[in-house]
Each structure stands twice: as structure tokens, then as C-alpha cells.
Design brief:
By secondary structure, the chain is an alpha/beta fold. The protein is 41% helix and 13% strand.
Amino acid sequence: MTAIESGRTVAVVGTGTMGQGIAQVALVAGHPVRLYDALPGRAAEAADAIGRRLDRLVEKGKLPPAERAAARARLSPATALPELADAALVIEAIVEELDAKQQLFAALEDVVGADCLLATNTSSLSVTAVAGALRLPGRFVGLHFFNPAPLLPLVEVVSAFTTSPAAAGTAYETAAAWGKSPVRSADTPGFIVNRIARPFYAEALRLYEERAEDPATIDAVLRESCGFRMGPFELMDLIGQDVNEAVTHSVWEGFFRDPKFTPSLAQRRLVEAGLLGRKAGRGWYDYAEGAAGPQPHTAEPCPAPAAVVVQTRLAGPAAVLEELIDEAGIKVTRDRTPGEREGCMRLPGGARLALTDGTPATDDVSGAAIRFDLALDYRAATRVAIAPGAQASPQDVREAVGLFQALGKKVSVIDDVPGMIVARTVAMIVDFAADAEACGVASRADIDTAMQLGVNYPGGPSEWASEIGRPWLWNLLDSLHHQYANGRYAPSRALRRSLKLTGRML
């Protein structure tokens, strides 16, 4: 397959933020670009706005003045659909309503040539359903850009049930020729990113609803333990609570209300109250001028314990903790106790400090217990969450806090919830990714690329699975499944099959 030649016209229908961004991308790539909007005068206004953005690129030294002039000369508004007749590609970025999109493309079919590629930028509707109104649905494809389109490299190339391989290939190569990083996706609710990213928001909302911690602390733990650029609550505020909830609801409905995708009542109430995030001045956080920034709950300084007993091998990312404890000058005695869970240590007061396994510390029958949360890289992490069981004394908690503080970590003491914060979030993302791969949504490599480029994850789900260990992740989800018997955390068949393929049976 080959990309659409740069000299051929690209038409963009819909001149909002996404439409303008896509038009700018095609324009800078060398195409003549024609803008159309159903509202009179809107296309001309959009052309002027794009011109001003090109001017700013020149001012920043990112675009030569001559290229700016040539690009402006290639950009023109259209006042009627027949003016798009010579387009080789039409990309739609109008309102997210199925009927409106179907009517638009049915009208476009009467205008453009038979070789014109038709594409929708929808993020929540079925590409197959939009294509259902066409006489030639084989030339129809999803081209899902991410906002802001000129800056973010990811483009999901979504094949409808009826999309021809040739059309998908041309769309893919064209996106690549525009300097983007395209990935191939089947037409599934949420495609790749919006399907697999649901647990990042959903688990945070569930933890909030369970009163495990406040939004600022959950955000801080996920940022500082994992390297996520933004926590889920601040990201929802940036996206817009209404937009984020609408995507969640669309994916949930698309999967016939599968409990794994259940929306949040807490977020529904926020939307009903009009607290939509940054654009409204308030969401989970207050964005009014002079408002105090959110502060996570952080434990006060505590003395480090003189010694700890490591009773079992610290597995996966937690293995480095033994080195860190040694480096901090704390005496480590290794007493490999048969039958103990992986990642278990004894504090001086006798409390068991163990990596979360999906069960609450209070359920530990051996006595006082404290769970610590997963970190993708304990050496790089700057914050660790711990959850004391009901039997743990204040002194036990101080010893656990002091241990991690001696390793240079801030500590957040959270409620004793199964799976804590990081572990259950990462495990669910990995499981969603494994299920999507098994269902043929996308390849493992494309999934990892999409999650890193589309939502700035610090790594890909398959990379996390390899580093943490699929058996540990499966066991954690299985424990959560028994704690919450509603199907939400049931580990996928795909994750279990991956254990068989690697010879790691449970």
C-alpha cells in the first residue's frame, strides 16, 4: 500500500478543535486542504485560525516562512459539499452523533470520486455503523487522531467490519507519511486506547467511592510510584468530566454493560453538578484563581527500624527492596520461611510487611500485618503507599513508614482495601490489554505503542506484565475477584492462557 500523494487534496469536514488540528497536519504535510462546515462562515474562520497557528510556528522557529506562505496558499474554505469533489481523502470531525455522520457520508458519496478514501475521526461510535449507510463501505475507515492533533503522534487506524485491506493500508501509510505513529485497530468499543485505559480512571473512582483515599493522594501515588505524568483525577479534570464519562458510558454500553466497564456514580454526580473540571473552574480540584493546590496525605517522619527480617524472596519489581534496605544501612536478616507469601518481611515489632496480593491486611490470620503497594520501579519511585490491617498497632505503622522513608520515599498510609492503588490499576490495565490482543483488536506491539503515545503511559502493558510477572498479576486479580464477587475483576482467559504458553501454571 502507498500513501496518498502530497499533491492531492484532503478535505476536512467539521472545523472545531479536532478538525482544525487534522487540517493543519495535512497542510504541513504538503496537501491542498479544503475545509467545510455546515455553519456558514465557520470554515473561513477556521482557515484564519489555522493561519495564525502557522504564524506562531514561524515565530518559534519551527516552520520556515516560505513553507508557511506555501501552506497558507494551499488552504481554502468551502461553502458547499460539491466543492470537495476532487478530494482524495475526506476526514470527518463533526458532532458525535451516528445519524449526523451517516447523513454526511451518504451525501459525500454523491460528490466525491469512487477512489476517494472516506474517514471518520470518531472516538466513541462504531466505525462499522457509520459505514453502514454507504454504497461502497469498503473505502471507509476510522482515523482517530488525539488532541491536540498537530502535537500528539498517535493515530488509530480503525477497520470497520466492511473496510477493505487496501483502504486500511492506504490510511495507515498516509498517517505515517504525515509524520504520525499509526497503529491498526479493529472496530471495538473504545478502539485501543479508550478501551484499555478505562481501569486507570475506573479504579481511582472505585477507590474514592470506597473511601480508601482522597483524589490528591490517589493521584500522587500513581504519579510518584509509577511514573504516570498525571494522576487519573487531574487527567479527568483536564479532559472534562462530561467527556470522560461519556466515553466510559459509550464503552460500557458497547460491551453490553459488562461489569468490567461500569461507570462511576461519583463521576455522574460531578457531571450533574456542572463540576466538569478545568473548563468549568472546578472538578475534582478547584481551579479558581488563588485556590490552594491539592495536597496528598503524606506520613510524618518516623525513625527507621534498625533491622528487618526478609522471610521470602521479594519478587518482580519488589526484589530491589532488599538492596535498597541494605544501602540504607538497615540490617537485613534473611530467614526464608516455608509457606510465606512472596514479598514478606518482619518488622522489629513482629508485624508482617508484605507486598499486596489482592487480600486486605486485616484478613491475615497470622496477626498484625501491613501491605505495601506495587511500584513499577522501587528505586525510582518517590512515594509508596502502605495499608495497615486492623491488628497493626500505631508502632507497627511507624516502623513501616520509617522503613520506606529511610529508602528515600514519601509514604501515604491508606485504608486497608484489596489490591491497594497501583497494583489493582496496573493489573487491570494489563488484563484489558491481554484480552484486547486475544480478541484481535490490535497486536501486542501496537497496543504498547498506543498506550505510551496516546495517553503517555510510562511503559506498555506487555512490558509491565513481563517485569511484574503474569502469575503474580493473575493471582492478584483472582484474589480481587473473590473479594468483589461481581465479575469486575475476574482475570481474563487470555491472561491465564499466557501463563500456559510460558509454562507458568497456577
